[in-house]
Amino acid sequence: MKPSPLARDPHALYEAAVQGIDYDLNFAEKLFRHLRGRPVRSLRDDFCATAALAVGFALRDPSHVAYGVDLDPEALAWASAHRLARLDPSVQARVGLIVGDVRTARVPKVDLTLAYNFSYWVMKSRADLVDYFRSARRGLKPDGLFVVNAFGGTDAMRPLVESRKIPAKQAPDGWRLPAFRYVWEQESFNPIDHAFHCAIHFEFERGRPLKRAFTYDWRFWTLPEIQEAMAAAGFRESRVYIEGWDDDTRPDPPSARRTVMPQQETWLALVAGIV
Q1: Total domain count for the chain?
Q2: 43 near 112, Cβ under 8 Å?
Q3: Are residues 19 and 32 in the same domain?
Q4: C-alpha separations of 142 from 30, 109, 275 in Å
Q5: Residue 5's Cα: distance from chain center in Å?
Q6: Eight-class DSSP state of 227
Q7: 239 has which bridge partners?
Q8: Which domain, by its residues, includes 23?
Q9: Fewer beta carbons below 10 Å: N end or C end of the chain?
Q10: Average pLDDT over residues 205-222
Q11: Residues 140 and 261 both lie in one domain
Q12: Distance (Å, rounded) from C-alpha 172 to C-alpha 84?
């Protein structure tokens, strides 16, 4: 397969290293059916960046409608050029990309809203977090569901560098994306205000690395803080589900729910806000 022109493109590299579209959508759809007793037909992908989740959902069924919302026009332009442009017009018509603040963007009400990859951690205060959660609730249909992810553990609140090799795979443009190394760096954590600064680097077999390809200036939100903010935003209930690390270990939603869990070096969780 011809090497992709996106071989050093940060957005393509991020998707290859971080996002598992089928992995995430499979669980989210199972969770919705478990809690609501029907299939998801409409999805909103908040902080969507290159809209991989939104487009992936639209591709799953001709009845699916999806919206991606992000403040970054460059990321959405990338999604249009490298993802939507390659799709059948019938699929393109069922995907809406909106440049705007997730708290104020005008989007039709949906069954399911996802805020993944911890991007809502850009909200630095409880008031801002509750404001966002309240707007997410307003954007749901009467039996809708709002799901965010979070991570934690004894390694989460300290400086840390982790790397792993990403095997070659197909890029969004359909060509081969060569293997590379993904590096996650937790640069600093302030225990007083939970200010959390991180960066992503990419390294290659040949050529200079892409240092600080993405940087994050977040507040580290804990699970009880997230659940309390959901309650303050008007969600009737919130539930915590622990994620597995791959498709073989991820349990189905009923067995993934937790009210108590042991502390670990690292854990991933989903918090579902139920209207």
Answers
A1: 2
A2: yes
A3: yes
A4: 19, 9, 7
A5: 25
A6: H
A7: 272
A8: 10-152+221-274
A9: N
A10: 97
A11: yes
A12: 10
